[in-house]
Structures are given as structure tokens and as C-alpha cells.
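I'd like us to work through together how a protein chain folds, taking it slowly. To get us started, please write out a protein record for me. Go ahead whenever you are ready, and we will take it from there:
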Amino acid sequence: MASTRSRVRDRVELPDVRPDLRVSFLGDSYVAGFGDAEHRGWVGRVAAWAHVIGFPVTVYNLGVRRDTSADVRSRWQDEIRVRSGDAGEPRLVLSFGVNDTSSRGGGGRRPTRVDPDRSVGNLVAILDGAAASGIPTLMVGPPAVTDEEHDERIATLDRRFASVCAARAVPYVAVFERLHADPVWRADIEAGDGAHPTSAGYDRLARLVVGPWCEWLAGGPGTVRAAPAGAAQTDE
């Protein structure tokens, strides 16, 4: 843990003046931290790391269980509006996709809850709306689950999400492949409901996000950039 934090400090150049950042995390049960007995999830962990490196932020965890991209699209503007007020600099972190790719009524090749093209369209609408409002955005891709057919659909949507973000210079933290191959993550979700981890799994997810997250915070509006693939690796 300590070595991860020191590496994050080394790679992030903090601005002389710290803005009053108010960051809204919108997404699904992974954003909410479902399954974590510590009630921190990956959002609480990366928020704590921001404080460790000297960049305190106000964080709003707006994750909702079973939410899809369509649900997030329908509420993101109202969620940010009531939390920004007249002061502070609003920012947005998005993470969804597992629920979009879930089969309706169970496994197999049945239609998904949200058609992939609609999922992409929902993301485009959110990102373009945030850009028009001057709200810097970071996207964290969907994680892996235990069902291989579901994982195939997640992996495909993950790549499409990454392309959408790259075209808009929005940083995208792709976590699917790393978590799919991570024995700690796999064992953690297999011991539970097949999708959600406990504290150990959320810690693994947070370590993939923390580097790009802190760089994005320090970059400020106008200097937000997509993190290269290797930038997400902050394991001890």
C-alpha cells in the first residue's frame, strides 16, 4: 500500500493552487461498492489516495445497483446540478457496462438489457453533454465477472467505450483485461455472487484506477488527457 502511494505521488505534479473540486461518481453497484464490508469500494479508496497525495476533494458516490448506461444518462445532469451550487468546480467520473451487457431473464444468448449500440449512444450523449457544460470527465471501464459469455460481451463493449472516449480525449481506465486475469479478483467474485467482490477485490480495482485518477485531478480543465494503457498499473 505504501509503495503504491509513493509511486502515485512521484508521477503526479500538483498545481500550486488547489481548486475546490466536487467530483460526482455515477454508475452502478461497483461504484456503490456493493459487497464491501468496509463500505469503501473502489471509489472510497481512490478518494482517500487523493487526500494522501495532498489533493483533497469532495466526493459524491452516486452509484445505484442495477443501473445501466440509460439510467445514468437520465439522471447525471440533475445529480451534478444539485451538488455543484454556485461554488466549486464540478467533475464527473463514469463507470457502467456490466448491467448493460446482462442477458434479460438469465444467461445464454438472450438479448441484453441494453443494446450495445444504445449503450455507446448513451455514453456519447453523456460525454458530449459534459463537454458542452465544461465538466471534465473520467471514465472507468466495466470489470470482469465469472460468466464467460457475459465477459465476452463486457470485453466488446469495453473496447467500444474506450474508442468513444479516445475520440473525445476523455481518459479511459480499462480494467477488464487486468481483472479478468487477476487471481485475487477472480477468487473474490467466485466466492460471492459471481460478479461483486469483497474488500480484497475492490482494493485490486482501486489500484488500477488510482494512478490515472490522481493525474486527472491534477491536470485540471483543458489538460485532461487519455492515460496510456500502462498508466493504470499501480500494483505493489
Summary: The CA atoms of residues 141 and 228 lie 14 Å apart. The chain is about 50% helix and 10% strand.
